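MOLECULE: protein
FOLLOWS: sequence and fold
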Amino acid sequence: MLEVGAVHLVDDRTVKAARFDARVASPGARAAPGTNPSLGHGPDAAPEPIMDRGIEAGTAWGIRMFGLDFAAGPAAGILAATALQSSDGPRLVVTANMDHIVLLSENDAFRRAYDAAAARTLDGMPLVWLARLRGQPAARVTGHDLLAHALFAGPAGQRVFLVCSKDAVADAIRDRLVRSGYDPAAVATCVPPFGFVDDVEYGCALSARIREHGTTLLVMGVGAPRSEIWVTRQGAALGTPIVLAVGEAVNVAAGLVRRAPIVLQRAGLEWAFRFALSPRRLFHRYFVRSWRFIALVRRDLKERDAAA
């Protein structure tokens, strides 16, 4: 089972979840509802970040930037509010960072997915800082936070389907969930082929498999913008699960990729840690594409001032 440190007061305005230790115990055991484990691994695994109690937990959109509304509350509240939304199709939760904002200005399909999302969070620290500079209450809510809550503090009996980037990731995350107490029949995985987003026949087959599994939680771990676009295109064919588009967080949860130490996360330097692990893959994103973000911030500020 998962032994989870209790949530405790840091001061009269903030709460913090303690670190946890995960180990195999009696079959069928699950983390207690409402507990808050991290899905990082190793000595540098991070606890849930400190959250301001004054921020309403997903009960309303609290932040407006780049023509979109973002939820201000912590992961638990955002997921609870999303679960209460009635829908004929999937309820997609997206986690915005600098690269997403740039992509939204270039990719119409990605923008439509964001517009249709049930909830949007601020994953990248630059977005959190920007919101705070504007006087808006903001806390970072990452894909790691959402995934930890959804998998280990979610409703009992949920049925999970994980779309993974590699076979090794799919095998590892499924094994971890089963060892933590999930019924093996309640966890399904797949690794889609390259180009699956535009493969109509494959999309229909995968959507049918997800729906027939009785999926209540769909986790997309193939990265942006593919995850968000594919889910939005499939729509009601998927059923009505909550969908987390969390990319790399699935690889971390599987124990195959390290997450940045907590000190780097709090300093807004998690990107530097990720770049050190995958410099070729991330160089263009961080050192070429990211400069467009500055122009988009300026445009957004002008539009905001004009509307005031």
